[in-house]
Amino acid sequence: MSQLPERTDAVVIGGGVIGTSIACQLAEAGVGTVLLERGALGSGSSGTTAGVVRTYFPGNALISSLAVRSLAAYHAFTERTGNDLGLKRIGLLVLFTDEQQVQDFRHTQAAQQAAGVDVELVTPAEAARLNPLVDERAVLAAAWSPEAYACDPAAIVRGYATAAQQAGALLRTETAVTGIDPDGQVHTPAGSIRADTVVCAAGPWAGKVAALADVRIPVTTYPVDMLLTDTPASAPRNALPMTMHPSSLRIRSWGDRILVGMGRPAPDETRLAWLQRVSQHLGTTFPALAGNDLESGWSGDLDVSPDGMAFIGRDRSRPFLYAAGFSGQGLCQAPAAGEIIRDLVLDKKSWIDTTGLSTARCLSGSAVTG
C-alpha cells in the first residue's frame, strides 16, 4: 500500500454516495482532494436502502428542496459525463389511512410545490390504478409524485468516484481513519496526511469519526432488513411504483420480484414475530400478497439523526465539516449535499439557507454552518 501524500486541501472521510459526491464536486472546483474509505466504495449505507431517488418527503419541504436539486443534478451528471446512473422512473405513492394524514398533506402541499415537488392528492381508486396491488378499501387517499426513480446505488457511487478521479482527486479504499488532530492531521494505517479541511461523510460511522476530532454529530445507527417476495400473477407487467404505508411498510418492483421493507425487529421482538407483523400489513394493504413467503434480501445500518433530517455544516472551532445523518435518504440528497460542502470549503454563498441543517438544531451551542 503506497503512502498518502503529506498534505492536501481537503480530506473526505467516507466513500459512499455522499462522500464521492463531495469529493467529485470539490475536485471539479479545483480543490485538492483525498477521499479515505475504511472498506470498499459504497460498502456502507449506500447499498442498504431500497434504491429509489425521490423528491417528495412528506412534512419536510427542506429535504424535498435538496432532493429536487439532487435529481436535476443526477440528470445533468449523466448528460455531462455519459455515465449511466441507472435511473428509471417508477413514481412514488404515499398511502394515507386516517384523516389527519390527509389534512397534513393539504397543509404542506403548497410548501412542497414551492420546493419544486410535483405531488398531488389522489383518491383510493386512483391509488389502486397506479398500483393495482393496493386495496382501495384500506386507504382514505394517497399522495402521488411521479418524480421518483429506481436506481443502482453502486452505479451512482462509481459515477461520482470516476468523475472525482478524473478531476484529480485521490481515492483510497481499505484505509480507516484512526485519528484526527486539531490542526487537520489525519492518521491512518497507511500514514498521515495534513488537510486544510476535514470532511466527515462516514455514514453510520460518522459519530465515531467526528469524535476523533473532538466534534459531536448526534447520529445513531438504525438497522434495516430488506425482504423479497414473489410477484403475484395478477400484477401488471410494468414496474410498480414505490409505495409507502404509514406503518413504515414500503414495497416496489425489484426485477421480477417485489422488494419489501419495514425496518427490522424491535429489541424485544423475535424475527418470527416481526415477519408475521410485516405479513399482516402486507395482506391488509396489498391482498394479492397475503400469505406470500418473505425471503431475506440484504441488511445493513443507516445513519440516522434525531429528527430524520441530515446534518450538513461545519464546526466553529476547527476546520471540520460534516454531512451525515441522512436517515436512509442519502441517495436522494447526495448531489445537493456535495454542493453545500463545496461552497462551505470555498467560503462561497450557498444556493440555499443552510442554517437549519447544522447540528445546532439538536445540540445547544454546537456547530453552525457559515
Summarize the structure in short.
By secondary structure, this protein is an alpha+beta fold.
- Count of DSSP H/I helices: 8
Shape summary: globular
**CA-CA gap between termini:** 37 Å
Structural class: alpha+beta
**Residues in helix, %:** 25-40%
Mean pLDDT: 93
**Roughly what fraction of the amino acids lie in strands?**
25-35%
Helices and strands, in order, run as EHEEHEEHEHEEHEEEEHEEEEHEEEH
Rg result: 21 Å
Oligomerization status of the protein chains = single chain
User: Biggest sheet, in brief?
Assistant: 8 strands, mixed
Annotation, overall tally of beta strands: 19
Question: Poorly predicted ranges (pLDDT <50, ≥5 residues)?
Answer: 365-370
Protein name: FAD-binding oxidoreductase
Keywords: Oxidoreductase
Domain FAD dependent oxidoreductase: 9-344
InterPro entries: FAD-dep_OxRdtase (IPR006076), FAD/NAD-bd_sf (IPR036188)
Features:
about 375 residues; alpha+beta; eight-stranded mixed sheet; 8 helices; about 30% helix; about 25% strand; globular; disordered C terminus; FAD-dep_OxRdtase; FAD/NAD-bd_sf; oxidoreductase
